[in-house]
Design the sequence.
């Protein structure tokens, strides 16, 4: 019987060796959750209105920024062929905030350019990897017409506008309408009524749409 | 068959590896071959359907959906799992409500046998030996049973008592099976694993529901439920009745003892040759639960469940009195959940489990457990998720002997106390690397203070955390409960042979017992290979020490009597692997698993109160949702020989194949469903199987045709 344990140890190693194999393909294939969230973001663009100044002329695209470690992979591929509000949607992937600070090594110009890029986005998805830098990121787009969307607890309280939640295996979202108003964004009622939670103008008057 | 889930994360299913290795030449009788071909044909059609290009959640399709439609898309195989897979610190399989429903089965142990790594042996119509990775018996005190996270183990015997739980099957949301030592997170005595039954919330089952299942032997299982929700309240109440006819009445075959060692033995008129299988079991069940949303952040919930069982008498340790037995069980709880403004959360809970029983071959007894517990979850910095908690439990056990051969508990009633504290820290060291530390310490008034731990490192191989490696060390223990510490009994009087006051079987109370101890090293991989294909592989080495068994003491007189005394007599090694593979589409589900669970005692032939695990186990499940409301379901399971450890008076349980088939058709716009099916098509799980201390095993019904109907209104 004892020799079986050695066989078994080898099995463990083989098993773990095999487990490493899928690494090469993993990065490009988004999870089903993020395919779904990508579709949500696409829909958010339809139900949020930006000012004419922000929208620019007809040739200017809508910019969807993703800051941090991007979990979407190729999930936005179908958007290439679609228009929103008669505009093309372009995807802009941005370095994580901490990563930028490290790589820019105090280069103010680089940092400023980065912040301008953030502010140019119509929708900015803040990846979970940015939880440590969340307040700093949101500080730079505060009161700017940027629809910030996150997927972490406390995102709305930190100054974010929309936040994804999971409930019973389904994607839900919550909205800070007060922050949206300060950002001069108009979130349509069709979207608000579907939100799990809406924070209105006064911080104390929270409503639960459930 | 087993989708992953949530509270623990969980993963799913298992491949048909090596099934052919286990197939013996006997399998290829014409009849079996026909069954096999039929099964393969059905699977073939499933494969085709599952391979069809209809991927409802394909990215391009999702972009065509409205937000309302998107909100209805379930992401079981992605989000929850993709996130949770990376968070799993234990191997967990989840039996879902669909798995339970489409199996057509009416008892929890029957359903559990289709979970990887779970050993299930039917001893009679209602009594099963159930264990995770073996070490199971009629009294399986090494696997911890929970209902909604609350202890469901007998404070007298330990372990699970599935037959008396006041839980209706259609009220079960899922059953989580944790493999390996789980004491640190789940509470004391989670020695080889945990089986946690989670019930449905009222808001998930609003309205009325009636369901009934009858089979060819006259068994029935009926369930009525009503659930409602208004602004702040939601509540659910169920009543049910189940009736298992005795094996005799079911006409299953030979009903004399199958134990050749003892059948016909002149030993003192035990009557084995006349033994009849009066193993009927009838249950009345009630379950009620309510939730009150006191505020946005505070929920109060409470519930009471009740069961009353009547059972036929059976033999135990050579004692077979006639008459009927009964159990009464009440489980109640009240819980306050609160989410604090700073994002932390917690709960306070009381639960009470109360039982009264009378079993003619044992004795009359009653138990009371009152438990108060609390838990607080908070963040430390940005990267630590911490939970702290503890519980106090007060137990009272009373027994009553009614005749000289009853189990005798000296000095009863027993008042016992248990206090436990735990700390769980989940440290997200990097985006991909997480360390989880669980530690728990328990003080038990009757034995000693002991501790459990689980230390895990989880490493995601990719950013979406679709592929995760896990390495764990775990330690747990099992305290001996009153049944081991205090009981003595004398069975089979020798008065008839001229020795009044002498007994053939003499079980003595021990002078002292220590906790059984175990530790384990584990490694695992969880991966989502495509949107619909998932793989889980877990492997382990587990070391047991101080296992409690029965030490045989020589008869001081040359009378050939048997003397037994519980003692910490043995150690053992256990090792193995479980592989689960699943394909899930909107059109159906195909899953397969293989479990290799090996076990080796340090000292041969020690009676450690259990079976070893079946070394090889295989499971295969297919479910196909067709147009017009038709559903086909098939469950297959192979279990290799299950060796009994140490006891020479009972026998190993032979290898068996089991195949269950069911067809369901919805009607009345999905509000009604009719199901017909057959369980154990091969008719190979009908025994007789011998439990420790139960030598008059008999056959039970195997192949069973059933019909079930349900309506929602």
Sequence:
């Amino acid at each position: 019987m004892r020799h079986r344990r050695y066989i078994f140890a080898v099995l463990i190693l083989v098993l773990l060796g095999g487990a490493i194999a899928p690494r090469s393909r993993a990065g490009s294939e988004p999870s089903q959750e993020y395919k779904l969230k990508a579709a949500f973001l696409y829909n958010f663009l339809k139900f949020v209105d930006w000012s004419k100044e922000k929208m620019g002329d007809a040739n200017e695209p809508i910019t969807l920024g993703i800051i941090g470690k991007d979990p979407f992979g190729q999930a936005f591929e179908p958007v290439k062929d679609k228009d929103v509000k008669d505009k093309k949607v372009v995807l802009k992937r941005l370095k994580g905030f901490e990563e930028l600070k490290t790589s820019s090594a105090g280069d103010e110009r680089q940092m400023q350019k980065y912040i301008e890029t953030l502010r140019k986005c119509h929708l900015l998805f803040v990846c979970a990897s940015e939880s440590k830098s969340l307040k700093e990121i949101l500080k730079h787009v505060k009161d700017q017409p940027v629809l910030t969307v996150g997927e972490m607890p406390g995102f709305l309280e930190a100054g974010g506008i929309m936040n994804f939640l999971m409930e019973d295996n389904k994607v839900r979202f919550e909205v800070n309408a007060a922050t949206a108003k300060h950002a001069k964004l108009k979130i349509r009622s069709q979207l608000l009524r579907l939100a799990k939670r809406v924070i209105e103008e006064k911080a104390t008057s929270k409503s639960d749409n459930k | 068959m087993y989708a992953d889930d949530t509270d623990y994360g969980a993963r799913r299913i298992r491949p048909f590896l090596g099934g052919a290795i286990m197939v013996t030449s006997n399998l290829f009788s014409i009849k079996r071959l026909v069954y096999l071909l039929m099964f393969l044909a059905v699977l073939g059609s499933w494969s085709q359907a599952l391979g069809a290009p209809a991927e409802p959640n394909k990215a391009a399709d999702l972009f065509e959906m409205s937000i309302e439609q998107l909100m209805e898309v379930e992401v079981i195989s992605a989000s929850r799992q993709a996130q949770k897979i990376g968070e799993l610190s234990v191997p967990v399989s989840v039996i879902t409500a669909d798995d339970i429903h489409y199996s057509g089965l009416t008892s929890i142990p029957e359903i559990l046998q289709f979970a990887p790594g779970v050993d299930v042996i039917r001893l009679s119509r209602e009594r099963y030996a159930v264990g995770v990775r073996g070490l199971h018996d009629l009294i399986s005190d090494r696997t911890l049973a929970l209902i909604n996270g609350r202890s469901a183990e007998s404070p007298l015997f330990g372990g699970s008592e599935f037959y008396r739980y006041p839980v209706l099957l259609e009220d079960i949301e899922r059953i989580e099976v944790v493999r390996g030592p789980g004491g640190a997170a789940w509470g004391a005595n989670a020695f080889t694993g945990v089986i946690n039954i989670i019930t449905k919330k009222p808001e998930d089952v609003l309205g009325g529901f009636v369901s009934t299942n009858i089979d060819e032997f006259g068994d029935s299982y009926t369930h009525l439920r009503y659930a409602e929700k208004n602004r702040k309240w939601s509540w659910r109440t169920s009543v049910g009745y189940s009736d298992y006819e005795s094996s005799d009445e079911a006409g299953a075959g030979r009903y004399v003892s199958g134990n050749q060692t003892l059948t016909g033995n002149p030993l003192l008129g035990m009557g084995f040759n006349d033994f009849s299988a009066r193993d009927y079991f009838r249950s009345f069940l009630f379950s009620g639960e309510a939730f009150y949303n006191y505020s946005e952040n505070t929920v109060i919930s409470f519930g009471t469940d009740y069961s009353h069982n009547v059972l036929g008498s059976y033999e135990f340790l050579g004692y077979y009195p006639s008459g009927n037995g009964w159990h009464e069980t009440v489980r109640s709880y009240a819980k306050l959940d609160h989410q604090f403004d700073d994002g932390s959360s917690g709960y306070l809970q009381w639960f009470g489990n109360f039982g009264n029983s009378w079993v003619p071959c044992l004795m009359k007894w009653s138990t009371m457990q009152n438990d108060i517990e609390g838990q607080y979850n908070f963040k430390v910095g940005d990267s630590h998720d911490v939970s702290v908690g503890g519980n106090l439990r007060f137990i009272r056990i009373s027994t009553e002997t009614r005749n000289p051969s009853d189990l005798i508990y000296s000095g009863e009633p027993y008042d016992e106390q248990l206090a436990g504290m735990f700390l769980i820290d989940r440290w997200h060291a990097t985006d991909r690397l997480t360390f989880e530390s669980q530690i728990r310490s328990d003080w038990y008034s009757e034995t000693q203070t002991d501790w459990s731990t689980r230390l895990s490192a989880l490493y995601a191989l990719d950013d979406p955390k679709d592929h995760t490696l896990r390495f764990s060390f775990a330690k747990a223990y099992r305290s001996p409960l009153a049944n081991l510490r205090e009981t003595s009994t004398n069975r089979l009087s020798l008065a008839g042979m001229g020795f009044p006051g002498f007994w053939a079987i003499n079980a003595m109370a021990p002078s002292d017992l220590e906790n059984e101890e175990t530790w384990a090293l584990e490694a695992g991989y969880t991966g989502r290979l495509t949107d619909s294909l998932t793989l889980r592989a877990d492997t382990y080495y587990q070391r047991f020490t101080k296992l409690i068994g029965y030490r045989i003491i020589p008869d001081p007189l040359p009378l050939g009597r048997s003397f037994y005394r519980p003692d910490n007599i043995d150690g053992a090694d256990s090792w193995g692997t479980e592989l689960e593979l699943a394909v899930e589409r909107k059109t159906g589900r195909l899953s397969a698993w293989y479990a290799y669970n090996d076990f080796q005692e340090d000292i041969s032939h020690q009676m450690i109160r259990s079976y070893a695990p079946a070394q090889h186990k295989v499971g295969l499940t297919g479910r196909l949702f067709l147009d017009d409301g038709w559903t086909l379901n098939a469950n297959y399971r192979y279990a290799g020989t299950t060796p009994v450890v140490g006891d020479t008076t009972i026998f190993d349980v032979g290898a068996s194949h089991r195949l269950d088939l069911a067809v369901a058709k919805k009607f009345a716009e999905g509000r009604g469903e009719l199901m017909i099916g057959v369980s154990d098509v091969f008719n190979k799980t009908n025994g007789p199987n011998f439990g420790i201390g139960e030598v008059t095993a008999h056959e039970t019904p195997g192949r069973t045709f059933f019909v079930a109907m349900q309506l929602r209104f």
